[in-house]
Structures are given as C-alpha cells and as structure tokens.
Write a structure and sequence with these properties.
The strands form three sheets. The protein has a six-stranded parallel beta sheet with strand order 1-4-3-2-5-6, with helices on both faces. A six-stranded antiparallel barrel has the order 9-10-13-12-11-14. Helix 7 (166-174) runs antiparallel to helix 8. It folds into two domains: 2-163, HUPs (Rossmann fold, 3-Layer(aba) Sandwich), CATH 3.40.50.620; 189-300, Elongation Factor Tu (Ef-tu), domain 3, CATH 2.40.30.30. The chain has nine helices and 14 strands. It has 301 residues and is α/β, with parallel strands linked by helices. The two termini are 34 Å apart.
C-alpha cells in the first residue's frame, strides 16, 4: 500500500476505484466497503484508493464540542490496519478549516475526477461530503451521467439488528461493553504502549503497567478485563485493571507468565471481556482469582 499526504505529484494510478471517509476503527462496515473497492478494482484492472482525513473533521469543525473526542485508532494504527486489507493507495489529507470549505462539486470534479481520474466512486450508506455535507450519493449519481464514471453505494451493515458505526463502537468501549465493540470491529479492541515493571511473583506471573502515549486514544471504562498482551509477536494471556483517576488513567496488567521481558518494550493489549468493576485503591490485585481464571480460560482457550 502506498501512502500519500496530498494530491500533488501522485503519478499515474491505473483506473482508480475511490472511496472517502474518516474510517476510525476500520470496523465491519468499513471492511465491506474496502472489500468491494478491491473487488471492483480487480474487475476493471485498476487500483483501489481510500481518502481519509487527519485530524478528525469534528475536531476542526466543532472544537469546543469535540475537544474530548477520543478515537478508536490512532492515525498510525489505522494506516497499519488498512495496509492489511490489500488496499493499493491511502491518502491521508490534512483537514483544515480551509479544506472544510471545499464544496462537494469541487471535491468531486477537481480532486476525484480531474486529479485522481476516478473510474468508480464507492460510498457508504447515507455518506455525505463536501462543505456543509452537501454532497451525497444522489449528487454523485447525477454527475456520473455527465462525467462518465460509475458510482456505487454500499448498504448499511448490521450486527444483531444494530447498525454498525464508529460512534456506536466508541459508546460501547466507554461503557465497558468490549465484547459488543469487538463484534462491531470484527477484531479485539487494543491499545498500544510502553511496558514498565511494577512487581514480579514467582508463583503466578508478573504485574506491569502500560503507558498510553497517544492522548486521543480511547481507553475503556474502568474495571478488570480478560485480555492478552502481544509483545514482539509473543502472546501472554492476562488480566488488566483500568483505573480512571480524574484526568489520569492507569492501566495495570497481570500477566500469567513469569518469563516476560519488560525492559523498554512496546506491546499491544487486546481486550476480550470486562470481568468486574474497579472499586478504588483497595481493589484486589491478585493475579489468580479463581472466577477470573475460569472465565479467562473459557474466553480464550
């Protein structure tokens, strides 16, 4: 996958099949859109193109209302996840006040058609774009008759009769409904950070902390979770304890393994299920609670 940061000097993209959106979380609905994008590109001997934006448009358009908006994926995480989808081109465009004033007509005609020379434009259900969200599928369909391109709308995706969206996923994570969020995402929700050792026990394993460096990363509701830690392709099954203390969040990990390298290592922490609430500093931090161990075995093995 080739990554671009503007629409200048992009070279030739063969028969581009294009979609646009924020794609926070790369969830089930996104996967269907990208899958169709790749399929259409193969059918016309073309290349798939996804245009996304950074920062999140809501943070630029509504800074007061969205100052506390947390994202499912950081920009780096999103790029890595999209790279696994066989996408050919990813455009990460700097979203500014000036860019937000681009009309839907200008966005489609000047960028998608004149610069990218899109052959097919794919949009998600009820997708809007351009200044004041004035562009939609109907506009693209009418324009396609004049500019000789094809447009396709992907139906809304449902999980157990609930529409999948990044907003619903964020809500589920904030409420500790990790299994619901994972179903929407079609993968375990994860956070990435640097590990630091807190304590070791020869009998059960070790206790460490993971420090989340991205301020915009969404952290689940406080409590104890069944989880797994992936470090340099090595997996350790564990519990994690999220402690929300005002503006500070502490994430402690209880690893069921004594052979863990915690020296300045980054790792991904994947969440399976919220087991119980966090009750303050007097919480039981024992690694081997019987009921937790039984549930962890049931969920993972």
């Amino acid at each position: 996958m080739k990554i671009h940061y503007n629409f200048d000097n992009i070279g030739e993209i063969k028969n581009p099949v294009v979609t646009t959106g924020t794609f926070d979380g790369v969830h089930v609905g996104h996967a269907v859109i990208i899958g169709r994008l790749n399929q259409l590109a193969r059918e016309i001997d073309g290349e798939s193109v996804l245009i996304t934006f950074h920062p999140h448009p809501r943070k630029i358009l509504f800074p007061d209302k969205s100052k506390d908006l947390k994202l499912i994926n950081t920009q780096n995480e999103k790029a890595k996840m999209l790279a696994k989808t066989q996408l050919n081109h990813l455009f990460i465009i700097d979203f500014t006040i000036s860019f937000s004033k681009t009309s839907s007509q200008s966005f489609v005609n000047d960028i998608l058609l004149d610069k990218l020379k899109a052959k097919i434009i794919v949009v998600g259900f009820n997708h809007h774009f351009g200044h004041n969200r004035e562009g939609d599928y109907d506009y693209l369909y009418q324009l396609s008759k004049q500019r000789n391109f094809t447009v396709e709308e992907i139906p809304q995706q449902d999980i157990e009769n609930e529409a999948v969206s990044s907003t619903r996923i964020r809500k589920a994570i904030l409420e500790g409904q990790i299994m619901k969020a994972n179903a929407y995402l079609d993968h375990q929700y994860f956070i990435k950070g640097k590990l630091s050792e807190l304590n070791k026990t020869s009998e059960h394993g070790c206790i460490c902390r993971i420090d989340i460096e991205e301020n915009e990363k969404l952290i689940p509701l406080s409590g104890r979770y069944a989880a797994k830690l992936e470090q340099d392709k090595i997996v350790h099954y564990c519990f994690c304890e999220i402690q929300n203390k005002g503006e500070k969040t502490v994430v402690k990990i209880f690893i069921l393994d004594t052979n863990v390298n915690l020296a300045e290592n980054y790792a991904n922490l994947y969440f399976y299920k919220r087991l119980r609430t966090y009750n303050g500093d007097n919480q039981d931090y024992s690694i081997g609670r019987i009921e937790d161990m039984e549930l962890l075995n049931e969920l993972i093995f």
